[in-house]
Amino acid sequence: MREEPRGAMSAPLAGIRILEVGVMLAGPYATMMLADLGAEVIKVEPPGGEISRQVSDSYFASLNRNKRSVCLDLASAAGRQRLGELAADSHALLVNMKPSVIRKLGLTYDAMREFNPKLVCVALTGYGLDGGDDPAFDYVVQAATGVAAMTGDPDGPPTLPGYSSADNSTGLTAALGLLAQVVSGRGGQVDVSLRDVMLSQLNYRAAAYLNDGVAPRRHPNGAHSYYVPAQLFPTADGHLALFITHDGFWKSFAGEAGIGGFEKMADRAARRDDVLELVTAVLATDTARGWEQRLRPLGIPAAAVRSLPEALEATPEAVVTAGEFRLVGGSVKVGGYDPQYRPAPTLDEYSAGTQSS
Hints:
This protein has 14 helices and 11 strands. By secondary structure, it is of the alpha/beta class. It has 2 domains: 17-202 and 322-355, 3-Layer(aba) Sandwich (Rossmann fold), CATH 3.40.50; 239-304, no CATH class. Strands 3-2-1-4-5-6 form a 6-stranded parallel sheet, with helices on both faces. A 3-stranded antiparallel sheet has the order 7-8-9, covered by helices on one side. Helix 2 (57-64) links the parallel strand 2 (40-45) and strand 3 (67-71). The longest helix is centred in the middle third of the chain and has 20 residues, at 165-184. The radius of gyration is 24 Å and the shape is elongated. The N and C termini lie close together (12 Å). 33% of the residues are buried.
C-alpha cells in the first residue's frame, strides 16, 4: 500500500489528478500551486525534458516541486495514446503552448473528450486559443497591454517590474479557472491568456479611461494616482513606502510626524505637491527602518524598502526545503493542512515506477 505523505489526509485537493504539458513559468507555476495543495500533478515532458530544465536546476525546482514526470512524444500515435490513458483517470489537463501547437497535438477539449468527457482542458496562451501565434513572453505582454508605459518616473523610460508579473498572474488565473470548472463537475475548455489577464488587472486604471476619459500618467516615485501621500519616499537612510489611503491614517501619521493641516483626502489630492514636499522633508529626519518601527504600531501602512535577500532573511517561515533546494513555500495556507514539499521530479520518473513518496 502506498504510504500517505505527511498532511495528505487533509489536503484540500487530495484525489484531484492534473496533467500538465507546461513550459517555463506560467503553466508550471499554476500546477505547482495545485500540487502544493495536495493535487497529484503529472508533468508531461517531451523526449529530453521540458526546456526549463536547461535554465538552471534551481529555476526548475522553483516551479515543479511536488510533481511527477512522464516523458511522452505527443507527436506520435503511441505518445497520444498514453496521454489518453492518463487523461481517462484525470480531472484536468493544463497546457501552455502556442494555439497552433495545442491544436496540432490534440490537446484541446474537443480532441481529448474521447478519452474523458469530464476532463477540464485549460489552454494558457499569449492571446487566447483564437488569438494567433504571435510571441507572447512576459515582457512583450507587459509592453503590449500598457503596463510598461505606466511604470517608472514621468521623465524616464518605460519600466518593467523586477519579476515575471504577467506569467505569474496568468498562472494564478489559470489555476482558478481550472478549479472552477472541476468544481462544476463538467468537462470543457478553459481559455486563459496573458493579454487578458494583464488587462483585467488594470481594473480601475482601465475604468477611469473607459468611463471618464482619464488616461493613466506616471507620478514620481511610483505615487498612487488617487491617494496622497502614497508612494516611495527617501529618508535619512533608505526609502520608505508610505500608503495613506484615508483620513484616519493621515491623522495618525501627522500626529507622529508633527505635521498640521490637510485633514481631508480631497485637500491632500488637490494640493499634492505641497503635501509631498512637507512629508518628504519630515521623513528625511529619520531612517526608513526607524519610520517603519514608529509607524507600524500605529497601524499606518509603511515599510522600509528591502532587497530580496533582506526580505527572505526577515521571513524565514516562508522558506521551505524540497529535496536539496530551499524555496519559497506555497502562499495559500489552509487550516489543518500541513503541506509536504517534495523535490521536482527527475525526467520520466512516473514511467519508471517511482510514484511513491
